[in-house]
Design brief:
Largest sheet: 4 strands, mixed
Strand order of the largest sheet: 1-2-4-3
Distance between the termini: 19 Å
Number of helices: 4
Low-confidence stretches: none
Strand content: 25-35%
Structural class: alpha+beta
Order of helices and strands: EEEHEHEEEEEHEH
């Protein structure tokens, strides 16, 4: 069973095409027009072993908000579609990831119920061309469009770039674990009968 999907979205603000293979090798082809964001998505693909293509263009002359948020929406939709009915997946995943002086915890439940807990404080700053506050917007959009509980907590603060990168990598590892197939699981991992 191939666990792949391609989702497109076009608005007056952005035009995006995202494709993902949950059982990939970490190969990525990313182009959103926001260098720092591309770097984060490349790390997400590599460390989650997802094959990921993101092609986006939009109103970056306004700011980066629409592109970052809409990428979360479209990527979330692609992940949800690739997961299918979630038969055989582990459902839960977590990771505590260090990056130099920073330490980030990420936990995922592919429950079908959207919720984001984001416990991190970024100083008002830009990371490359991207406002640091948009990191939360991205994770909010992806959690709601996948329908996942997503908890991200910075345990040790430090360099803003390191904090952001640790979040994307920890999310990748946690999602890889949660979406992994386990031969012991028959149907979906719930007492309710469906997720």
């Amino acid at each position: 069973m191939k666990r792949t999907a391609e989702v497109k979205r076009k608005t007056k603000e952005t035009e995006l095409t995202v494709s993902i293979n949950l059982d990939g090798a970490g190969i990525s082809d990313i182009s959103t027009g926001i260098g720092f964001f591309d770097h984060m998505l490349e790390g997400f693909a590599r460390h989650g072993f997802f094959d990921l293509k993101v092609k986006g263009k939009g109103d970056l002359y306004v700011d980066c908000h629409h592109m970052v948020e809409d990428t979360g929406i479209v990527l979330g939709g692609a992940i949800k579609e690739a997961l299918g009915d979630k038969s055989g997946i582990r459902r839960f995943g977590s990771c505590i990831l260090p990056m130099d002086e920073t330490l980030v915890l990420c936990a995922v439940d592919l429950s079908g119920r959207p919720y984001l807990s984001f416990d991190a404080s970024f100083a008002p700053c830009r990371l490359g061309d991207m406002d640091a506050e948009l990191i939360k917007e991205f994770f909010y959009a992806i959690s709601y469009c996948v329908g996942m509980n997503l908890h991200i907590k910075v345990l040790s603060e430090g360099n803003q770039h390191h904090m952001a990168e640790a979040m994307f990598k920890a999310f990748a590892r946690a999602l890889d674990e949660a979406s992994s197939l386990d031969a012991r699981i028959k149907g979906v991992l719930t007492t309710k009968g469906s997720l």
